[in-house]
Amino acid sequence: MTTPPALLIAGHGTRDEGGADALRALVRLLGERHPEVPVAGGFFGVPASPLPLDDAIDGLVGEGANRLAVIPLLTAPTGPVPEALPQVLERAGERHPGLGHVCGTELGPHPKLLDVLERRLDEALGSGARRPADRARTTVLLVGRGAADPYANAEVVRAARLLWEGRGFAGVETAFVTQAAPDVPAGLDRCRALAAAAGTGGSARVVVLPYFLFAGGPVERLWMQAEGWAAAHPDTEVYAAQVIGPEAEVADVVMERYRAAVAGASCGCRAAAEDARPAHGAPRESASLAAGTGER
After folding, report:
1. How far apart are CA 280 and CA 217, in angstroms?
2. CATH architecture for segment(s) 111-240
3. Chain center to CA of 45
4. Which InterPro entries match (predicted)?
5. Are 235 and 169 in contact (CB under 8 A)?
6. CA-CA distance, 77 to 257, in Å (whole number)?
C-alpha cells in the first residue's frame, strides 16, 4: 500500500503564541480525523515565529515523509512577503535531497468558511440576529489583512460579496488592516453612511468581522481601531466578531485542498509566493509528486 503524501499546513507568519496554539489545535484535529495522513504545520513569512514551518518540514521528514502536499492556510493570497513559501520549500529541498512537494491553493472564500463567518456574525449579535428585520438593518465590515498585491485584496472583496448573497444583511463592506484602502475607520464611515442612506430606522448597526483564521497582531490592531471609531460615533452600534478559528469546517477545507493537490488539481503556490504571478497573470507551476525529486 502506497503511503500518502504528508500534509504540510503553511500558515502566514505570526509571532503570536495564541495563533501558534490555534494552528497546533488544527493539526491535532486533522490528525484525529485522518490518522492515515501524516500532518504538521507551521508559519512562514516573518522571523521568530513560535512555530516555524522549517521545523514542521524537518519533523515530517524525520518521521519518514519524502513527499509533501503543502496547503497555504490563508483566506486570501498574501502578496509579497519577506520570506515566501517557495523559498522555504526550496531551502527544505536543499536540507533534504529527494524531498518532493506539490502546493495546493489557499482556502479562499469556501462555502464552509462562509458558514463559519455567518456563525461568528450571529454570535456577535446574540439575540439581535434572530429576526430577518434585525439582519436587514445590520451592515457587516469584513476586514482582511491587506497586501500590496491588488489581486490579494480583490479576494477579500469577493468573499464579502459571497457572504452577503442570500444572508439578509443590509450589506457587506470591506476594509484592510494594512497596506490597502479603505482602512478600518474609513470602512466604518462607509457602513454608517450606507445605513443612513437606507433609512431603516433606529441607530446604525455594524458588525466588524475579521477575515482571519487566527488571532494575532493584525486582529488586535483591527479591534483597537474599531473601538476607537465606536467611541467617537456613539450613534452607531458597533459589534466585534471573533476570528474563524480552528473549526471542523476549516479542517474539511484543508483536506479538500490536500486531496486536490495530490490528484494534481491544484494551481500552485499562487497564494503564498512573493508576488509569483508572471506579467501575463498565470500562476507558477507546482512540482509533481510523481517525480518525487523536489524539482521546482
Report:
1. 34
2. 3-Layer(aba) Sandwich (3.40)
3. 14
4. CbiX-like (IPR002762), Sirohydro_Cobaltochel/CbiX (IPR050963)
5. no
6. 15
Residue type, 279: A
Of the candidates 220, 176, 212, 246, the one whose C-alpha atom is nearest the C-alpha of residue 25 is: 246
CA distances from 126 to 46, 98, 134, 216 (A): 36, 53, 11, 24
C-alpha cell at 49: 515565529
6-106+247-267 architecture in CATH? 3-Layer(aba) Sandwich (3.40)
Same fold, 6-106+247-267 and 111-240: yes
Q: Which of 65, 70, 31, 36 is nearest to 53 (CA)?
A: 70
The CA distance from 286 to 100, in Å, is 10
Q: What is the spatial distance between Cα 54 and Cα 13, in angstroms, rounded to a whole number?
A: 12
The residue ranges of every structural domain in the chain are: 6-106+247-267, 111-240
Q: What is the DSSP track for 244-275?
A: --S-HHHHHHHHHHHHHHHTT----STTTSSS
- Pseudo-torsion of CA 149, 154, 157, 161, nearest 10°? -160
Q: How far apart are CA 26 and CA 110, in angstroms?
A: 17
Closest CA to 100 of 285, 295, 294: 294
